[in-house]
Amino acid sequence: MTPNKLRWGILGTANIARKNWKAIHNSGNATVVAVASRQLERSRQFIAECQTEAPMESPPDAFGSYEELLASKQIDAVYIPLPTGLRKQWVLRAAAAGKHVVCEKPCATSVADLREMLDACRQHSVQFLDGVMFMHSRRLQEIRTVLDDSSSVGQIKRITSAFCFYAPPDFFKGNIRVDSALEPHGCLGDLGWYCIRFALVAMKGQLPRQVTGRILSEFGTGTGGTAIPTGFSGELLYDDGVSAGFYSSFLTHNEQWAVVSGDKGILRLDDFVLPFYGKEISFHVSNAAFKVSGCEFRMEENRRSLIVPEHSNSHATAQETNLFRNFTAQVRSGKLNSEWSDIAYKTQLVMNACHDSACAGNRPIAISG
Description:
By secondary structure, this protein is α/β, with parallel strands linked by helices. Helices cover 34% and strands 27% of the residues. It folds into two domains: 6-134, 3-Layer(aba) Sandwich (Rossmann fold); 142-319 and 346-366, Dihydrodipicolinate Reductase, domain 2 (2-Layer Sandwich). Helix 1 packs across helix 9 (319-333), helix 4 (84-96) packs parallel to helix 5 and helix 8 (186-202) crosses helix 10.
C-alpha cells in the first residue's frame, strides 16, 4: 500500500457507496481497507463486486457489524451512507473512535441531532463533511468567480432550482426513501438538500431571514407510520428583497437545474447536482438585451457558455473524486475545516425550517443561526 494514503472504512453497503468506492480508488491519496454490513456475506459480496471494477491495492476486510469496523486501528476515516434515521448514533461512535467522517445527506433528522454530531467531531478532533459532491467541483469555483465579477450577473436578486426524478411504482413498495422512520423528510431531504445548499453557496453562506415550505404530495408507509413528502416546494427570503425558491419531487422526470438572476444577467446550470455525461461540464451566462427600432422588437440572448475540463463521473477529475481527495488533504493538514461543518449545519437548519413550515400549514418560519 502506498504510504500516507488515508485508510477508509465504509459503514454500510448502500448503492451510493459503490460510486464512492470508485471515487476513493481514483483519488490517488486514499484507499478502502474495510467494509461493514450487518450481514458478513453482504460485506464480502460488496467488496468482491467493487474489487472487480475498481480494485484496491489490497482487498479490504469484511466485517459483519459496524462496531467491528469502528474498533479497527487500521482505519483513519469512515464513509457513512446509512439511512438518515440511523446516522446520528454511528457518527457519534465514529467520532468517539477517532475516525474522521464523511456523512451522506441529509446529515440528521433534526438540527439538534446534527449539532450533537458536530460537537462530538470537534471534541474528538475529527473532520466532518457531508456528501454534497458538487461542492468539490472545479465548476463551482468558476461560478463563484463569475458571480463575484460584478458585471456578468451583478447583484443577486433571485435564485431558483429544481431537483427531481420520476420514481417507478416499485420505489414506493420498499425503498428506504419513502420510509418515514429512516428518511422522514422524503424528497425534501433526498433532493431538496441540494437546492438549499446551492442557494446558500450563491449567497456566500448567508442564512435567509425567513422560510416557507409546502408539501405538494406525500406518501405514507414504513415503520415510522407517518407520510413523507414526495413533492415539495420551498421559499427562502433574504434581506434587500433577495429570494430563493426550489422544487423537489419523486414524481416528475429528471431535472436538476439552477438559475441565479441578477440585475445585470442570468447564470444557469442545467445539471448542477450530477453533471451530464462527458469529459467537460459547463454553465451559461446570459445578458439579454431588448432592442426596439421602429416596428422591429428584438430580444437578443447574448449567451456565453463557460466550459470546465472536468469529467462528469468515474474519473480522477470528477467531483466525487475531488471530494475524497480534498478530504484526505484536509485531514493530512492536521487542521479541522470548520467551514464544512458550518455549511452542513446551515443546510440542515433551513431544511428543517422548511419542513416545519409545511407541517404548520405553510406558516413562515424565522431563521436564526
